[in-house]
Amino acid sequence: MDTSNDLQEREIFPKGEEITNEYFRGTAWLQVLVPNDSTLHCPTYNVTFEPGARNNWHKHPGGQILLVTGGRGFYQEEGRPARVLHPGDVVTIRPDVKHWHGAAPDSGLTHIAISTNAELGEAEWLEPVTDEEYSNL
Amino acid sequence: MDTSNDLQEREIFPKGEEITNEYFRGTAWLQVLVPNDSTLHCPTYNVTFEPGARNNWHKHPGGQILLVTGGRGFYQEEGRPARVLHPGDVVTIRPDVKHWHGAAPDSGLTHIAISTNAELGEAEWLEPVTDEEYSNL
User: Fold this and answer.
1) pTM
2) Which PANTHER family does the entry mention (chains A, B) (predicted)?
3) Is the CB of B44 less than 8 angstroms away from the CB of A114?
4) pLDDT at A3 over 80
């Protein structure tokens, strides 16, 4: 079983600060690798989810790319089965596709998150992934 | 000393195919993580340089982000001293800034390369980094 401590020891990019907004359940961490700006339009983050942690359903107006670097977790688009994520997996998320991502119950997850076409606006945050939805994966 | 074999064992993303174009010196490898497309505009690659390998001087009309994941190498912008790269380093390259990147003489280098604003066009490839320039770093 991976724990967040195990993940941290193996990880390349810093874990950053604990995410304290209401769009996440469980404990997750964020390090800004590239801030948003008006030239590259491509803010890039290192995100670490402790076991069981995940974000709410949400959409990105410009899309997103996830590059999984550690642990094990899930990515799910609305109306589709969840995809299990492992290190080396790449997820491309089209604009305005409702989705969530996060750790497995028994493993942390670390991924790089690249916000594509960031000039099109911020993520639209929606309802949480309920414990029932999550436990039924 | 890192060797490309050592790098490969530690690396998260595949090494891909050997780069055979004339814009690289030495041996380098490329794996497409996200292909270019007309929606995300953000092709993303895993690039592995064997010791001594580097690319020519070049410019990206839309800019580029490098996320260093293994080994040791260099990034240099024209007219500036070379920056030594280590795992966890992030390089943001503004549009049309002339630069090169590659491995150290005694270590391989692996980085993720994100082409930002790819709708603005392909890289403009220029002259090689000469052995004299490289050996004087």
Assistant:
1) 0.93
2) BLL4564 PROTEIN, RIBD C-TERMINAL DOMAIN CONTAINING PROTEIN
3) yes
4) no
